[in-house]
Amino acid sequence: MADTMQFDLVSPERSLASLQVASVQIPGADGDLTAMKDHAPLITTLRPGVLTVQGPEGEAKYVVTGGFAEISGEGTTVLAERAVPATDMTEEVYHDMVRSAHEAHAKARETFQNEPGLVDDAAKLLADMVAMGGHIGLNPPNF
Amino acid sequence: MPSLKDLKNRIESVKSTRKITKAMQMVAAAKLRRAQDAAEAARPYAERFNAVMAGLAASVGESDSAPRLLSGTGKDDVHLLVVLTAERGLCGGFNANIAKLAKQHADKLKAEGKTVKILTVGKKGRDNMKRDYGDLFVGHVDLTEVKRVGYSNAQDIARDILGRFDDGEFDVATIFYAEFVNVVSQIPTAQQIIPASFEERDDAEGASTLYDYEPDEEAILADLLPRGVATQIFAALLENGASEQGARMSAMDNATRNAGEMIDKLTIEYNRSRQAVITNELIEIISGAEAL
Question: Gene3D superfamilies recorded for this chain (chain A) (predicted)?
Fold first, then answer.
């Protein structure tokens, strides 16, 4: 691989990946984006989604929920609130994620009755979470 | 003068105490290594996070529309002290030192006429502060059931604190924990988390990069500040975890050594009084034989 950049994926509890990659597809808050070497410096927040890494050993996918990504010319660092390798993603973990998003939404609706913006944010988070299931082939739990 | 039997019992009991403290020390040493590993693993995230936040805060911080978590409520009247301690004792001055720092802080704030509220995390700190400051308690987070502190625990605590902040319950929040330096030294530390303060980056190289922000700086900041609270609490919990085990290890090491000294002393006493009994008996026999 000719053009590679350093890629780090860290969660609060541990570092999940640190390697040279060709490109990283990031689920940004405003839409997906792909970072390659010499990308313009950018900081973006993440929405729940699938992070796809084109590495030396082929493609690796991680499921991330929230956090942010820092892209600079030399490399990309993704700081995810919660990150799970797609291969470790089970229905149980996914349901747990959706459930907490659902609870956050319900709580926001209750607490911030006069601030629709915050409720919308929570609703969007929940919708993103549910949509993510489609990408990894899991069905959201029923409420 | 204790009898021989008494002495023997004493020695046996101190010996079994020594066994227990020795075992506790070894367990603490093993746990310390794990706690240190966890603290180490969490460091890259916290460092990166703080670096980005410092950059953001510097560019947005001055404007009027800065989030309240960063700029504060504009007042400084009600202080929330979050006291992070252990759930277990037998770790030297660890819990007492944190509580002491928090108490000093509370006294100082009260003397300045501020209102103080206290949120305790960990049973021991709560017990320690209950008598004098019990009326200031606003809540308690119980981690007794938690075997290994995870980010989700920190998130729960952060959510609790942020909820109170949104309800206008306090203006300034400070966390108290012990910073781990090494096995014999843990420094009780106070750190203000709301309004957030970030250390400026030292490296000029990072500061010179001009980033694009998506969606925009303020939206990112609003999204990240609550996470920042959780991150700081998580880091504090991990430091505390390592400090607790370190303190316990050295406390138990001392206890083991003291027990050893005590055993030596008791053994000498035991041997002396045994010898005294023998000498006594001999004298009796000899003087009896001479009398004949």
Answer: F0F1 ATP synthase delta/epsilon subunit, N-terminal
Q: Residue A121: count other Cβ atoms within 10 Å of its Cβ.
A: 17
Report how far residue A61's alpha carbon sits from residue A135's, in angstroms, rounded to the nearest whole number.
11
Of A12, A15, A42, the CB nearest to B212: A42
Chain B CB within 8 Å of residue A66 CB: yes
**Of A116, A24, A126, which is closest to residue A76 (Cα–Cα)?**
A24
This model of the complex carries an ipTM of 0.77
Q: What is the pTM of this model?
A: 0.84
- Transcribe B164-215 into DSSP letters: HHHTT--SEEEEEEEEEEETTEEEEEEEEEETT--PPP--HHHHHPPPEEES
Q: Reduced to 3 states, what is the DSSP secondary structure of residue A9?
A: strand
**Inter-chain residue contact A43 with B150, CB threshold 8 Å:** no
What are the tens digits of pLDDT across the range B176-199? 999 998 888 899 999 888 887 766
In chain B, what are the domains?
A: 39-248 (3.40.1380.10)
B91 in catalytic set? yes
Residues 144-163 of B with CB under 8 A from A: 150-151, 154
Summarised one tens digit per residue, pLDDT across range A75-134 is: 899 999 888 888 877 777 788 778 877 777 777 777 777 766 667 777 777 777 777 777
- The one-letter amino acid code at B219 reads A
What are the tens digits of pLDDT across the range A21-76?
999 999 988 888 999 888 888 889 888 888 999 888 888 889 888 888 989 878 89
Nearest to A40 among B44, B49, B212 (CB): B212
Strands A15-21 and A5-10: antiparallel
Of A15, A40, A72, the CB nearest to B44: A15
Task: Enumerate the residues of chain B whose CB falls inside 8 A of the CB of residue A72.
Answer: 209, 211
Report CA Rg, chain A: 16
